[in-house]
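Materials and Methods. Structural model of histidine kinase. The 560-residue sequence of histidine kinase from Ciceribacter selenitireducens ATCC BAA-1503 was retrieved and submitted for structure prediction as follows.
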Amino acid sequence: MGRLSRLFPTASIGAYLVAMAILATLPLLAFVIFLLWQLERSEYEALRQETAQDAQTIGRNFERELEDMETTLRLLGGAAELATGNLQSFHKRVASSLSEGSLYVLLADAQGNQKLNTRVAFGAPLKRMTDMSTLKSVLASGKIEASGIFFGATSQQWVFNLILPLSPPASASGAALVLTQNAGDLVSLTATDTLPPAWSAAVIDVDNKVIVSSGPENIPSGGDFPKHLVELMVGSNQSAVTLHDGHETMLGYARVGDWPWRVAIWGPVSTAQASLANTWQNLIYGSIALLAVSLGIVLVAAHQLRYSIRQIAHVAERIGRGEIVSPEMTKITEANQVAIALSNASFDRAQAEERVHFILQELVHRTKNILSLVQAMLRQLARGTDSVDELQKAVSGRLSGLAQSIEALAQQQWGGIPLSKVIELQLSAVVGSMSRIETRGEDLLANANAVQNLGLVFYELATNSVKYGALSVPEGRVLIEWTFLDGEEGTKRIQLRWVESGGPPVVKPSRQGFGTTVVERHAAAAFSGKVVMEFADSGLHWTLTAPLSAIENALGHGEL
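The predicted structure was written out as tokens:
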């Protein structure tokens, strides 16, 4: 990075900003071209998807139309007149019901001879059905089928049929009931209003004959659908692109439900993407204009930025001299944030220096207290031991307990730890388990002095109990409880008790060792309180009564 920086000359920030704007021109233009290319690709893919979806939409419209026709045909097939053979009445009722639409009903026998046709009056001479192939297929399968497009002999126009095979008792009147529809009347279902300009739509039958079509090409009903497009229609629902007469044509197609018809939508890709060329031109011109404006703005911004940086530099120099400074406000938000941060840093620095000074003083004070405590411990232990090994063992255990208390305090930044935690910390180190030790009382936060001194007291009580007291036998138990008392003049006091039970009989020691000194004299002196020790038959009872303020941290006590 250092070698790279040497390639850049020393210049003002304004010069660098202008250079950056100029150097950004070519990448920006390249990026715009890339975006347009990506846009063209995405629009192309979107066009393919939309074309297939439009074909499916038209297909669903025709599917609903055929389903409606199927429902109508089934209802007519169950008419009572067919069962009784009253064809004139059937003709009259059906012709009246379908008079406002473009649907017509035929009744034919198995040879295709028409027995009635609602296009003409009942009893008029009728020709044989034109669509014999679909009739034979229906009679063979026993299912409703739709025909392809054909020119009707009676209607003299392009139509298609939906044929229902009749079963008894209706079959006594004829073999099949036919619902015929004029193809041209369904042209609205292929409307191209929502398609791109110059696009067409068509519905084709199984023989690739156009049933109905709309759009610029508008292939007439019965005409052949273009072969080069038919070859692309592979599968049920899809889209495809082909080159025809030098133009790229897109085709979307879909099946009409379970019927043997297909829907096709096609047209030139160029008309669908005509707006993209204008987008290319507008984006390029817009980019050039934007860059020109940007250069002018950069020059103005460079001047303002230089001024703001100089103000911040002046603030930094004052902080370096140790001054507490107020923020210098500029016209740039980020520069103001830096100025505020520098101002806050000057205050924080002054506060940090004061705190460091306080911590150093506190550290000296606590170190003196700890060293005095260790010194007194060593003096007392040296008087009561006869060998170096015993002295080392006694000192090691007590220093370990003291170290645990100090470590726990350090983790809490000397803010104190809960009284229950102090008890657990010391007794676990000596006993190894709290299963035979019960604590009672509303927990409180013990201050640093109480943590260290109570740690020594509980260590001595636990050590003595393990050696001679209740914890020396499996059935022994220890209860540690504390209660709060009302003292004189409204002051609060605490009574802390150590009660052993289930152990061997205890006897008051004949001489006062270090442990006795700690739990009696040292505890009373450390907390400005009173210690009472009872060597009862049930076990040792130790009670400390002291001001609550001597043990509790300034944060107070409560459930922790």
